[in-house]
Amino acid sequence: MTSFGKVVEYSAKHPKPANTTFSYGTAGFRTIGDTLESTLFRVGLLAALRSQSKQGKVIGVMITASHNHERDNGVKLVDPMGEMLQQSWESYCTQIANAETDDEVVQVLTSIAQTENIDLSITPRVVYARDTRPSGPLLQAALEDGLAALNANATSYGVVTTPQLHYFVRCLNTADTPVAYGEPTEAGYYEKYGQAFLRLVDGRSQPSKLYIDAANGVGAPQVRKLADTLKSPYFNIEVRNSDTETLGKLNIDCGADYVKSNQRQPAGMSLEPGSRYCSFDGDADRIVYYYADENGSFRLLDGDKIATLVATYLRDLVSTANIDDLEVGVVQTAYANGNSTSYIKDTLKLPTVFAKTGVKHLHHEAERMNIGVYFEANGHGTILFNPSAVSKLQNATPQTPAEADAIQRLWNLRDLINESVGDAISDMLLVEAILICKGWSLAQWDAAYNDLPSRLLKVVVNDRTIFKTTNAEQTLTSPPELQDVVNSLVAKYPRGRSFVRPSGTEDAVRVYAEAATRTDCDQLAYSVAGAVFDRAGGRGERPDEFL
Ligand code: G16
């Protein structure tokens, strides 16, 4: 029997739905969960092949649709260092997911194996996990069939957060090497990040309670496990929106995406001035903070605010550590608030670059920096210390206690962050540690700069694939002439900026706008969304709330 000898038989159990095209988008495959069975089976095959192409390194598979509605599901592959799948393999994913017959599935596998010169005698190793979605178990079973068809050595991590799975993959592949990342277990995860947090805050004043909206997703049980491990007054939390059992609650009126998009608190949280709040998304890879000011008005501390807080803290530590040529940089996307970018450039005097939406794009830009802080405005991001930064820290010879302390703090910070991917739990510990060290309230953090009023809207259209962009997704090249319309609308508003791009995770087109005043911003956002609706096949209700 050839290496692919069992594939046809297994594949026949998971037929591809007719007239459906799948595509590996911003964060893997993502669509209605019930349609994804064949895709999961085939992702199992591909994960095994990917492992073989990496000489048997462990590959991860995460079954989740993150911030999306509960009826959606999705899957993404995790590469050996816990990073997102190498982009050149994304087209293989799309190819195999769309193979029309079982024989064609084998043909695609054979062609990838030849192109990539893969040694098929290597035993593939794959680990996988899922979030709390109801379609998860069925999709997991299909994935397991794919792994069995290629005789993979496969291990389930059960129901965990997406970043935890990334962490496990990195730990497994670095075990017993000089860059060993940690214990590849849930307990190891809580221990590593929790202990780094405690080392950073030791001796400081204890913070007030942090209320966490867990989006009724997997972050709820996981963050409670962290609290149980830490048992520390420095980590005094209360978890809200933690119902992972009742159908229909995941991400509904709660979670980081809801809070960021609607710029209001989630259901189940009434904000008291002086209290502290944050929201995770459904698979706990994003986080945003918020509070009520003294007038009771809602104030959001999103991914841009987290990036600037973290970059400021790192910049100051690096300066105190007095290490030559150790630089901090920041990576953002077009969704970054214009005032955050000005603040990074003009006040912090740090380099900043723009990447396309999707942490996989930001991650690669951050790798080019010594210490790269990358965050999307939606609260998805982390920090990377590249090998040159690590060796500079290792070779540093501190001349004063202050220099030695700053270097130690940089090491602790590095241990505190999930370097494989954006992680709501580790990012929360990072923010908490910095606030505790600075003795800051959320209002003091917020005071660094004022956001320009901004608005993010979704427009549902007949076919979002007709939308093509360039210039880090800020300029439309298709549909024809739509960008000219956007430009003419933007020109009407002081400090106006707006762009349109197709979502890679939802069946919608996203419209972002910002301007000098709230009224101008909303008018700009809704007029651009209206133009998209009118000129590019809008479906459902026309977005015209403010016009
Ligand atoms: C995913 C990606 C993020 C991206 C978001 C929205 O987040 O990991 O990097 O910002 O989708 O993407 P889009 O605008 O293309 O729909 P998550 O939290 O849903 O995995």
TrEMBL record:
Record text on cofactor binding: Binds 1 Mg(2+) ion per subunit.
Known cofactor(s): Mg(2+)
Pfam families: AMG1_II, AMG1_III, PGM_PMM_I, PGM_PMM_IV
Any one of the GO BP annotations: cell wall organization
UniProt-listed Gene3D superfamilies: Alpha-D-Glucose-1,6-Bisphosphate, subunit A, domain 3 (3.40.120.10), Alpha-D-phosphohexomutase, C-terminal domain (3.30.310.50)
Domain Phosphoacetylglucosamine mutase AMG1: 202-288, 302-440
Record SUPFAM superfamilies: Phosphoglucomutase, C-terminal domain, Phosphoglucomutase, first 3 domains
Keywords: Carbohydrate metabolism, Cell wall biogenesis/degradation, Isomerase, Magnesium, Metal-binding, Phosphoprotein
Entry's EC annotation: 5.4.2.3
Residues holding substrate: 376-378, 501-505, 510
InterPro entries: A-D-PHexomutase_a/b/a-I, A-D-PHexomutase_a/b/a-I/II/III, A-D-PHexomutase_C, A-D-PHexomutase_C_sf, AMG1_II, AMG1_III, PAGM
GO MF term set: metal ion binding; phosphoacetylglucosamine mutase activity
UniProt binding sites for Mg(2+): 66, 281, 283, 285
Domain Alpha-D-phosphohexomutase alpha/beta/alpha per the UniProt entry, residue ranges: 101-175
Domain Alpha-D-phosphohexomutase C-terminal: 480-528
Reactions listed under catalytic activity: N-acetyl-alpha-D-glucosamine 1-phosphate = N-acetyl-D-glucosamine 6-phosphate
Active site: 66
CDD domains for the chain: PGM3
Known pathway: Nucleotide-sugar biosynthesis; UDP-N-acetyl-alpha-D-glucosamine biosynthesis; N-acetyl-alpha-D-glucosamine 1-phosphate from alpha-D-glucosamine 6-phosphate (route I): step 2/2
Biological role: Catalyzes the conversion of GlcNAc-6-P into GlcNAc-1-P during the synthesis of uridine diphosphate/UDP-GlcNAc, which is a biosynthetic precursor of chitin and also supplies the amino sugars for N-linked oligosaccharides of glycoproteins.
Family: Belongs to the phosphohexose mutase family.
Protein name per UniProt: Phosphoacetylglucosamine mutase
Annotated source species: Coemansia brasiliensis
Organismal lineage: Eukaryota, Fungi, Fungi incertae sedis, Zoopagomycota, Kickxellomycotina
